[in-house]
Specification:
InterPro entries: PCD_sf (IPR036428), Pterin_deHydtase (IPR001533). GO terms for molecular function: 4-alpha-hydroxytetrahydrobiopterin dehydratase activity. This protein has 98 residues and is α+β, with helices and mostly antiparallel strands. The chain has helices at residues 9-17, 38-55, 82-94, and strands at residues 23-25, 28-34, 60-64, 67-72. The chain has one domain (7-92): Gyrase A, domain 2, CATH 3.30.1360.20. It has 3 helices and 4 strands, in the order H-E-E-H-E-E-H. The chain has a 4-stranded antiparallel sheet with strand order 1-2-4-3, with helices on one face. Helix 2 (38-55) runs antiparallel to helix 3. 18% of the residues are buried. The protein binds 7,8-dihydrobiopterin (HBI).
Length: 98
């Protein structure tokens, strides 16, 4: 299987088990996080941007004051691939511990 292959439903279920905070929404996985301030939220987006560039894989990001929503899917595959799971893990690793 290459990194661009769409994951099966059971692969997606397995991946979500190891991805606290992420849920499935259609063909995407989604996580919303809240930062203490607007500048902190923008700084976090910048860190995610660096990870996305390094992976050449990019989330859709919704910014509402301190609240950020990340949506991941592989547009070229029309669904979820290992690239999305990888980036979701990277985003989780950038978050402070709960
Ligand atoms: N990011 N989420 C996402 N999905 C893609 O298909 C994608 C991407 N970032 C870069 C990218 N594709 C390019 O590598 C290709 O379109 C060339």
């Amino acid at each position: 299987m290459s990194g661009d292959d769409k994951l099966s439903n059971s692969d997606i279920d397995d991946a979500l088990t190891g991805l606290p905070g992420w849920t499935l929404d259609g063909q995407e996985i989604v996580r919303t996080v809240e930062m203490p301030t607007f500048p902190a939220a923008i700084e976090f987006v910048s860190r995610v941007a660096d990870a996305a560039e390094a992976a050449d894989h990019h989330p859709d990001i919704d910014i509402r004051w301190r609240k950020l929503t990340f949506r991941l899917s592989t547009h070229s595959a029309g669904g979820l691939t290992k690239k999305d799971v990888h980036l979701a893990h990277e985003i989780n690793a950038l978050l402070p511990d709960d």
